Amino acid sequence: xxxxxxxxxxxxxxxxxxxxxxxxxxxxxxxxxxxxxxxxxxxxxxxxxxxxxxxxxxxxxxxxxxxxxxxxxxxxxxxxxxxxxxxxxxxxxxxxxxxxxxxxxxxxxxxxxxxxxxxxxxxxxxxxxxxxxxxxxxxxxxxxxxxxxxxxxxxxxxxxxxxxxxxxxxxxxxxxxxxxxxxxxxxxxxxxxxxxxxxxxxxxxxxxxxxxxxxxxxxxxxxxxxxxxxxxxxxxxxxxxxxxxxxxxxxxxxxxxxxxxxxxxxx
Amino acid sequence: xxxxxxxxxxxxxxxxxxxxxxxxxxxxxxxxxxxxxxxxxxxxxxxxxxxxxxxxxxxxxxxxxxxxxxxxxxxxxxxxxxxxxxxxxxxxxxxxxxxxxxxxxxxxxxxxxxxxxxxxxxxxxxxxxxxxxxxxxxxxxxxxxxxxxxxxxxxxxxxxxxxxxxxxxxxxxxxxxxxxxxxxxxxxxxxxxxxxxxxxxxxx
Amino acid sequence: xxxxxxxxxxxxxxxxxxxxxxxxxxxxxxxxxxxxxxxxxxxxxxxxxxxxxxxxxxxxxxxxxxxxxxxxxxxxxxxxxxxxxxxxxxxx
Lengths: 267, 204, 92
Hints:
The structure holds 3 protein chains of 3 kinds. Chain B is mainly alpha-helical. In chain B, 77% of the residues lie in helices and 0% in strands. Chain B has helices at residues 4-8, 30-56, 58-65, 70-95, 99-129, 138-170, 176-202. The relative contact order of chain B is 0.15. By secondary structure, chain C is mainly alpha-helical. Chain C has 3 helices and no strands. At the B-C interface, helix 2, helix 3, helix 4, helix 5 and helix 7 of B face helix 1, helix 2 and helix 3 of C.
């Protein structure tokens, strides 16, 4: 803001309209998150009852019914239209990670982990369940395979998310600029450890280590859900507290340059 | 962040006015304690669930436990306890300014700690070769998952202790808070193993 | 360096190691039946609780820690071992 000599000083500075907010890009990404996650939640829970996961040892007629249900069709339509928002919500992490004092390797690892995670953990299930919903007439055995494929891709794609959350957790813990709080770094470590405990879903078809099991699914959710919420609260605070001159897209204020020609433009 | 308790904990004098209790001290970063406490509670949930499932499948668990190598587990327990001892001694030495001693004591701790994964391989590899895999039954799934998670904690702990040693080696004035933080993590790893050892290997 | 051998922590270590061996001996010779060997299990769990308490108090230095930490650690011990004992004896 320019220290203007022309206008009389007012006790309260005029509020910047939201369109001119310098952090608008980050805020748009950030506010897409509740929208996207709510949509995701709607799609996966009440619409299709994909979550909580159905049993891996469901009998074949149940699987066929599920794969060809109307609700699954609707869920897949919504998912197809909205999955593009996933990268936008992930951008929030990356912008703040850029401010950390740690090596860029961390945010690159998170970015690539997020890309692969979205493909394997979201797109593959969408294809599998979408095939069941959009293409009637598949053999029940094929539908059963798609069902396995979809769920395993969704819950078994833990490797990508492990990488993401390891990168984020380590970056937070090693960051000397303290962009995000240290306890969040540790909580993120628990997050990826609980992903690791999900590895047995590839083996167990029933019991606590199956993809609908107590140890792999329910405990992981108990850790994940608060974590996801808390992470975004911390990112909100980080965005809000970020000094404007640190923004990547901070441009010199043209009016300031005109009013005070001696002033150097800030990067 | 850490010694917030020091100001608050003024020891109460006894009836004739002597103050003998040292002020309360939180070793290391408080964020590490957040992690330690949380990790202990998370593992506690896993431990209790194990006990619940054990109750439901008692014969299966009991029979499966027979195949475990108790001997190596006992040695590993003593290894970790000894390693923790050296870490505790080293922390004390570092506090007293005996940096070289602390460095050597941490070295002993790391050497012992490194024996743990090696011994674990001597335990796991014969078991897997004998066909006892995570998929064998619920007990073995629990066994491999829990000891596997614990092993990851051990390996991470060794890395942390390595960084502590490096700091002791290169710094003029070593960061005692960092030393204590690393030590706290390592003792947590020890505590977790003590419970695992009892639950997996010794319960009847 | 040998001065460290006289450190009281070594006594704690000796107790921990000895109790490890004792609990192993208790379990090792047990005749494996399909019944619950409640005495052995109770003994093993009790020793484990004692050992963890000692590591927490002496190695982790919770003995000198602020009161909230002492209470939290005690709560963890009581909850964990209480539930372990509880579920074990409930299933007998």
